[in-house]
Amino acid sequence: MRDARNQSLVLQRDVDTAQKAYEAALARQYVNKVESGARQTNVTILDSAAEPTFPSRPKVPLNIALGFFVGTLLGLAAVFLLEILDRRVRSDPDLDAVMLGMDLPMLGTLHTWHPTRLLGGDEPRALPSPA
Predict the structure, then answer these.
(1) What does the alpha-carbon distance between residue 39 and residue 17 come to, in Å, rounded to a whole number?
(2) What is the distance between the alpha carbons of residues 130 and 127, in angstroms, rounded to a whole number?
(3) CA 8 to CA 29: how far, in whole Å?
(4) What is the CA radius of gyration of the chain?
(5) Contact at 8 Å (CB) between 60 and 68?
(6) Which residues pair with 117 in a beta bridge?
(7) Can you tell me whether residue 103 is helix, strand or coil?
(8) What whole-number distance in Å separates Cα of residue 23 and Cα of residue 30?
(9) Pairwise CA distance, residues 78 & 65, whole Å
(10) Please, are residues 89 and 98 in contact by the beta-carbon 8 Å criterion?
(11) In angstroms, rounded to a whole number, what is the distance separating the alpha carbons of residues 3 and 11?
């Protein structure tokens, strides 16, 4: 009885080993089938691609024109903004507006200096030479 039990255990191990070998072979068959199918494609070329005659982007002349236009607008906006924010007095009307806002009297004004004209006349005169 002991010999029969030992023999049945050996046979059971042989069956398990054969079953595992069969499952490994079956898995390898599926892998091979999938790999062979991956090499075959179901794609066909309908129309071949043609190289364009000119690039669609970047559009250099348009970019240059837009850059020039936007740069000019930004430059003008910056100049006007700086001019508005500049609080210096440059003319008599500016000075009058500032003085009216502060309620201060104006003591006097300076006129444009013309060094080439005589004090009483309109005739031009040369400045003396420094030597």
Answers:
(1) 34
(2) 9
(3) 31
(4) 50
(5) no
(6) 124
(7) coil
(8) 11
(9) 20
(10) yes
(11) 12
- In sequence order, which residues have a C-beta less than 8 Å from that of residue 125 and are 6 or more positions away? 116, 117, 118
User: What pLDDT score does 123 carry?
Assistant: 57
Instruction: State the DSSP code for 9.
Output: H
Identity at 63, one-letter amino acid code: N
Establish whether the linkage from the previous residue to 52 is cis, with ω within 30° of 0: no
In tens, the pLDDT along 39-74 reads 666 777 888 888 888 888 889 999 999 999 999 999
2-28 in b/e form (b: 16+ CB < 10 A) is: eeeeeeeeeeeeeeeeeeeeeeeeeee
Write out pLDDT tens, residues 11-45: 999 999 999 999 999 999 988 888 776 666 677 78
Q: Which residue has the tokens 């006349």?
A: 121
Q: Which two tokens stand for residue 94?
A: 């500016």
- Record the pTM: 0.40
Is it true that the peptide bond before 58 is cis, omega within 30 degrees of 0? yes
Q: Is 34 helix (H, G, I), strand (E, B) or coil?
A: helix
